[in-house]
Each structure stands twice: as structure tokens, then as C-alpha cells.
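U., I forgot to send this yesterday:
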Amino acid sequence: MTRPAYLVSDGDVLLPSTTCKGPWGQTISGHVVGGILARSLEQVGSGPDLVPARLTVDLLRPTAIAPLEVRTTVQRDGRRIRLVDAELVQNDVVVSRASAVFLRRGEHPAGEIWSSPVAMPPLPPDPGPLPDDLMMFVWGYGGDGGSSGAMAFTEWGDATGPKYAWIRQVRPLVEGEVTSPFVAVAMAADAASATSHWGTGGLRYINADYTLTLAREPVGDYIGLAATSHTSQDGVAAGAATVFDVHGPIGNATTVGLVNPVESFHPRA
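Result:
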């Protein structure tokens, strides 16, 4: 079954549907915002042998479920590096912004470099029929990251151990378009906030921004996030996760969060 897209393109304007609604109120979910910005950055920044290597998304204001547009600017267009900025605009107000670096492929150097070992739990089993209103498919592993997982983030519960999530998009970002691997991983990277900031009280932090770094684009439908660190003080949190595809690690995601004083977030994804 093909689910309705999050957005419809009408010239330079994007029209969001109610499927865009996020968990924090009557606003567009952060992962959709990230996808919109990544899509526009890729349209302007991609080129022969250029790969997206870094994306930073600043979630400046709540984004209403209302018409919006993206304005992009090429800040640098060098022989090996292209830097592009984008702004998401509603009613002439910038509600979110992003920047991306595209790097040209080259000869890979010889030698080995140390990296902290991180492994993802196995891919999820076939979940069977999914709810029609599902935003994206999330399979979470909590605690020790053992072989048992659950739909959404419910398996994490009050666990204090490492958190892992396999994420698969189940609907197009824009009607009539195939969501690119870069846009898909950009959307999944928003969940680095939940993966790294989830604690015994659930998710108490609102995502203020996130940065995705990539050595290569993902292969396949599943994007994995393995939490690697969380640090917090006085209601401000910094977190990080390693990003995976089915073949192994492909990059990292970092995120900064601000405490939500109202209530914790227990999503059903």
C-alpha cells in the first residue's frame, strides 16, 4: 500500500498534509522539516562525484501545518567543496534553516584508523500490516540492545542502557517523488534526539538542532541509530549517535536539546 505523501508541491510552494503533524502539538514533525530542507539542499548542491558529507538543521520555531517554501543559496562552489544554505519560510518568517557540505569523491588513502567499535542489533522482523496513520516505521531496542525489540520506542521504557533504533520511511516526502537516500537519512537523523536523550522519565528534551555527518549515502530502506553519548546540565542536553545502514556505520548524528517542562514524550511513532 502506498501511503499519502507528507507534502504536495505546487510550484515553489509546498503544501503539507495532516500526516506531517509531530508529537509536540499542531506543528510539522522535525523529521519532516529536516527532509524538506535536505531535499532542497540536494537539488541545488548535488553534482557529478559530489556526495553529501554534512547536514546541519536548526529548528528555530514551530512550523505550522500550512503552506511553506524553501530558499536556497550556494555559499561556495569550489572544485572539491560545495556549500549550500537553505531557509524554510512561512509568512515571510524563517522557521528553520539548514546548511550542507557536498564533497567530491577521490582516491581513498591506504592505512587503518582507529574508531570506537559500535554495533547495531539485527534488523527488525516483518511487522505485518502497519497502521494507516503511521509516520515512519521505528523498531527500538533498549537496555542492553539484545535480540528483542518493539515497534516505536516502547521497548526503551525506563531502561538506562544504550538505545538503538532501526527506522524506515513508509510514505513519500513529496507526492510524485521518490525520496532519495540522502533525504531518507536526513529524516531519520532527527531521531538522534530520542535515541540519545531518552531516560528513565521518557524523552524530556525538545530537539533544537541536529547535525548529520556522512562518509557515504545509505543503501537500502533501513537507517540505524545507535546512541553513543548523552550529556546534560541545567535543562540543556547534548547527544550523539552512530548512523548505520544494512552494511554498517556510515556516519554520525549529534543533537542539542532543551528541556520540556510540561511532560515527557512517549511516542508511538
